[in-house]
Amino acid sequence: MNKSTLLLQNQRVFLLPLCVFLFLLASCTVSNNPQRSELKLLQKGKLKDDSSFIYHLPYEENKTHLLVQGYFSRYTHKNRAALDFKMKKGTKVCAVRDGVVVRLKEDGNKGGSNSKYRSFGNFVIIQHADSSRTGYWHLQFNGVLVNIGDTIKQGQVIALSGKTGYTYFPHLHFIVWRSDGKGQWTQIGTRFQTNKGIRYLRPFRFYRNKKNN
Ligand SMILES: [Zn+2]
């Protein structure tokens, strides 16, 4: 075997695992949900004539939080149009629009970085006039400040954030679902009013809630 054949073989030995690794990386990390590419365009402001509802950020006016995971993020949101806001335990969580409380849980008292904690996650779900729903997760034990059937105003404090359920650190996991009217629910991305204007939120950025008065 001459030197160049040996070199070629060495390269193959090296290249094969590299290709397998790159293939796994690509297939594992990027969601193929068609909403993902549309949301990318919306985030960059490349889709015009958007008449969708403008949501209030899920925290108090004039407060700032870091978005640690965005829509269809590679980490735990691969197939979720969900948002994770970093929040200290006990932070006031606010309703993003008017609605009625339809489901809640606040007796969970455990949380951590293991899926065995998933069922301990406290949450509130609110139904809106267009029959969409919003969900707020990982709330503090006994941290839900509203009851099922309560009518909620946009911006109203509804809960205290926490670290219950399957979560690595204290944060608010927030979701919007659209209904097809036949029992099928789809998670969707939405735009928010921030102090810098109306935005589709992107991860690793701080968003300050607008001060209205
Ligand atoms: Zn999340």
Structure, explained:
The chain has 213 residues and is an alpha+beta fold. It folds into two domains: 3-30; 36-208, Glucose Permease (Domain IIA), CATH 2.70.70.10. It has two helices and 16 strands. It has helices at 3-29, 34-43; strands at residues 54-56, 64-69, 82-86, 92-94, 99-105, 111-112, 122-127, 133-144, 151-152, 157-161, 165-166, 171-179, 185-187, 191-194, 197-199, 205-208. Strands 2, 3, 4, 5, 7, 8, 9, 10, 12, 13 and 16 form an eleven-stranded antiparallel sheet that branches. A three-stranded mixed sheet has the order 1-14-15, with no helix packed on it. The termini are far apart. The mean pLDDT is 89. The structure holds zinc ion (ZN). Residues 69, 76-77, 82, 84, 173 line the site of zinc ion.
Give the CA-based shape.
Answer: globular
Largest pleated sheet:
11 strands, antiparallel
Strand segment tally:
16
Distance between the termini: 81 Å
* Alpha carbon gyration radius: 21 Å
Helices, by number, come to 2
**Structural class, judged by helices and strands?**
alpha+beta
Whole-number mean pLDDT: 89
CATH superfamily of the largest domain: Glucose Permease (Domain IIA)
Give the topology string: H per helix, E per strand: HHEEEEEEEEEEEEEEEE
Q: Low-confidence parts lasting 5 or more residues at pLDDT below 50?
A: none
